[in-house]
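hey so u asked for the seq, here:
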Amino acid sequence: MYTPEKYCALLNEILEKDVSLIQAEKYQEIYDSLPENDNTAKFLLAKASIKYKEKGVAYRLLQELVFSAPENPEYCGFLGHCLLGDNKFKESISWLEQAYNLDSTNITVNADLGIAYTSAFEFQKAVHLLEKAKEHYPNNPWVLCNLAQCYRQLGNNNLAINTAKNALYSSPMLDARLHTIIGGCLIELGKETEAIFHYEQAIDLENDSPSAYFGLSQSKKFRPTDQKIIDKAISTLNRPQPEDEKIMMYFALGKMHDDIKEYKNAFEFFREGNLLKNSKIIYRPQEKLFEELQKTFTSTFLERAREIGSTTKTPIFIVGMPRSGSTLVEQIISS
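ran it, structure tokens below
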């Protein structure tokens, strides 16, 4: 068994020197040796668990930590960071906001919260945090990529292009997204030829980038000689994709086939895109109306409404005149 001091020293060594814990029995031994009621050891083990893909253990430990020490920004921030890595943006924002409120000077929290806001399309909130993070991490590709995305969405295309170009080739997994951001900005600036180049670069780097295919489809007139890229786009439909991305691909393919005069195929792709898009729309006007009526006309409201208006029983006569608004006056008084 480890003493708490030796236990924490071991975990720090694991985190800093990348000591292998791949063997399940070794991990289990360390997990079973966790000192009781030692938050420092528990936090280190949570970090090690994330590193070695034991996310279930990590989340359980972090939940215990934020419950026992809700005022600790490090625990809240790391839980938010982990949730962000799993694309759980709503939950991530909740914990990162809590960490930020406890310590707004933590640059990692600023960066993570800015990235989470960007992913949740809250670009105005994200910009301030990401600019603050950029001051400390001027070459961090994740910060720059999300900042470029925010600038683009807020209409500052030139700044978005410069920011994205500064991040290019510093992180291969982001390059396709950066080229797509640059392409979108260039289209809005009327530079179609340059935009097409960047969209094609994005597709070369990432074969299944829906936003790059869609951007390219809107930027150029496709010809039969472009069949290779059309086939590449079709092949992406066989891969698991979020519905929003699949909708984007259907519309991109519809435009591509329309350009090359394959109208039957174009119609089918547009139809599939519209069907999928419409399936996401919940349209129930009558239910919505009654829900709003229930929210508005509560028993408290009706009780208070007894005192509103005149209680006199003296009749009021409205003299009707054509096009004078007398009917409207009658309706207002009667209500």
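DSSP finds 19 helices and no strands in the chain. The CA atoms of residues 83 and 91 lie 7 Å apart.
lmk if thats what u needed
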